[in-house]
Specification:
The protein is of the alpha/beta class. It has one domain: Ribonuclease Z/Hydroxyacylglutathione hydrolase-like (Metallo-beta-lactamase, Chain A), CATH 3.60.15.10. Helices cover 24% and strands 30% of the residues. The protein contains seven helices and 16 strands. The chain has a six-stranded mixed beta sheet, covered by helices on one side. It is globular and about 50 Å long.
Length: 226
Amino acid sequence: MQPIYLKQLELGPMQNFVYLIADPTTRDAVVVDPAWEIDKLMQVVEQDDLKLRAALITHFHPDHLGGDFMGRHIQGAAELLQRNIPIKVHIHKTEADYASHIAGLSSSDMVRTDGTEELVVGSLKVRFLHTPGHTPGSQCFLIDGRLVSGDTLFIGGCGRVDLPGSDPAQMYDSLVNKLKRLPEDTVLYPGHNYAERVTSTIGDEKRRNMYMRFDRVEDFLGLMGY
């Protein structure tokens, strides 16, 4: 692995992780899922002399993107744009319309991704992986042996598949046919602080996470109640 700047920030009332990832030399940076406490986030950006180049969204739910949620409005990514920070919000094309409706982002604010992209940030390359299941456009980000997984893969668990737009069969495919095939030493950075530790590896999850241990989709669906 090459040296990178990667800061895991637990922000908001739902144990969300927001990530800052940067080239440690050029200080070019991306932020992943900036939904909460934008003032605190920007304090870190300024203190660490980072230059934000993009916002990457794992999926459109308001606790990761911003928008109306449980009777309150979370400004999220839209607030970054209101501060005249010259970035685009990268979100999967299947969820861009939701992002416009829920978070108030315009089409020109967004880059619609399809899971084949590589974003260059300084000397870093961020690879986009489309991992539907929790939502139709869920995506993970792979940076030189490090996986930021949003709500697709948790430490010891996976995202819910009983919500509007969820699909348990797609979740199985994303976990078993995509993420499980990554190198075992890939470091996992999940979207929430739901475990006793804040990082894991794909190898550990293959051995310990029951959601990644099924050989047949029918058995996975049975576990999920389908």
